[in-house]
TrEMBL record:
List of residues binding K(+): G308, G310, C313
Family according to the record: Belongs to the IMPDH/GMPR family.
Any one GO CC term of the record: cytoplasm
Binding locations of IMP: S311, D346, G347, G348, G369, S370, Y395, R396, G397, M398, G399, Q423
Species for this entry: Salix dunnii
UniProt-recorded name of the protein: Inosine-5'-monophosphate dehydrogenase
HAMAP family: IMPDH
Regulation of activity: Mycophenolic acid (MPA) is a non-competitive inhibitor that prevents formation of the closed enzyme conformation by binding to the same site as the amobile flap. In contrast, mizoribine monophosphate (MZP) is a competitive inhibitor that induces the closed conformation. MPA is a potent inhibitor of mammalian IMPDHs but a poor inhibitor of the bacterial enzymes. MZP is a more potent inhibitor of bacterial IMPDH.
Subcellular location per the Swiss-Prot or TrEMBL entry: Cytoplasm
Biological processes per GO annotation: GMP biosynthetic process; GTP biosynthetic process
Amino acid sequence: DGFPAEKLFNQGYSYTYDDVIFLPHYIDFPTDAVNLSTKLSRNVPLSIPWVSSPMDTVTESYMASAMAALGGIGIIHSNVTPSEQADMIRSVKSRRVPILSSPVFKAPDSRIVDEFDSNDVPFVLVTQSGTQKTKLLGYIARSDWLGLKDKEIKLEEIMRTDANVCVPWDYDLGQIDDKLKKEGRDFVVVEKEGGEVVDALTKEEVDRVKGYPKLGKGTVGSDGRWMVGAAIGTRESDKERLEQLVKAGVDVIVLDSSQGNSVYQIEMIKYVKRTYPELDVIGGNVVTMSQAQNLIKAGVDGLRVGMGSGSICTTQEVCAVGRGQATAVYKVSSMAAQSGIPVIADGGISFSGHIVKALVLGASTVMMGSFLAGSTEAPGAYDYDEKKKCRVKKYRGMGSLEAMAKGSDQRYLGDTAKLKIAQGVVGAVADKGSVLKLVPYTMQAVKQGFQDLGASSLQSAHDLLRSKTLRLEVRTSAAQVEGGVHGLTSHEKKAF
Ligand code: XMP
């Protein structure tokens, strides 16, 4: 019944995830027995196979913190200066709660006047430098300020000095929540060893995060801090960028290129492995076995697969190169498995079923852009789409003219191109709420898919596929229509 993957993917067709379907197998364990723990790269273990893409509308420090808190990992984009990128790494590593915050800092001799009147600012933190990088001297709450007659007074004269408001950087959500409750506080200040202020977390934010499915330990490195990756390019200047990222504590590096099988990337892989032997380096993107073989020979610790399959990509249209993502993932994974190199299936994920397909076809993780864009943790502010009647956030390809104008051009243009041609578009995606809810629910759906296939882990899925026990078929376009919702005049599509 059906075809083994080896036969299906060797007939000269390029299949996307939607083109293929698995035939169900035999269930002899409950959904919760499915274990999706995996590896991002040779030395980076994850408890869920989930990676956020290095795009400037997807992964900055909040997204990377949330990914680590969930047991996945975020890769910080490089469309910023090296020091800004390094600061984002430091921010992820400086605390252990995936909470959004934007405290206001002031120096002791400042007079805040407008701050409390024009904004909804609950408190102001006073530090020597007026920034978060020095010790806390005190704070002033909105209620204290509003009761003051003399608004020209210096903050040092009226601030509260209460060292008990501080908690160490490695406090988790439960510990912070306990303190807020026990001491009846509205916020706590998180500080580093040595006392520099890291952040301030409000009770409101703690309550928001507590409302999502319970978090586990997350992806924690040997330094006890959350793990985080970062993207770099292959120019000479990227070596200096890399040095800053390493100093900031980056755990894994992704060489960000749409066509990774190049002399530039191979030299960069060798440079990274020679200079920082402890640091995992992920190469790509690739879609063929021979591309993969070259990067494996050069020493990569992981491979990123996909060319033109992303939701914002126009590479296949513009450059006439690429591959259907199901075929690419299967082919590259078959080759990489022989050397024990984990594969990231990058792009083209719209549903949980696509994740099941990517993982069963051989990937160790899936990388997502559009699936995570538009979430609370994605960079950027929400706009309101009058036509669609919903909140939206910007999502843009890193090869769009708009992103390349900011510096991401080397991913698409290589070293010498002078005229910029877009390989991506700028768009918007609907508000998805927090990834702290989206990801656990989606993982549950993925586990159900694995259960239907009789696979209790990624390894067992890969074994079933390679032993030809798992069978697939190609779906005709009518079968694809039948496989989606059809025949209704209207419906609401809500998964959880
Ligand atoms: P999804 O489908 O998750 O895809 O939105 C995200 C992936 O798409 C790639 N990417 C691009 N590809 N032009 C391209 O051809 C672009 O402008 C572009 N921007 C991102 C990238 O691999 C990302 O992870």
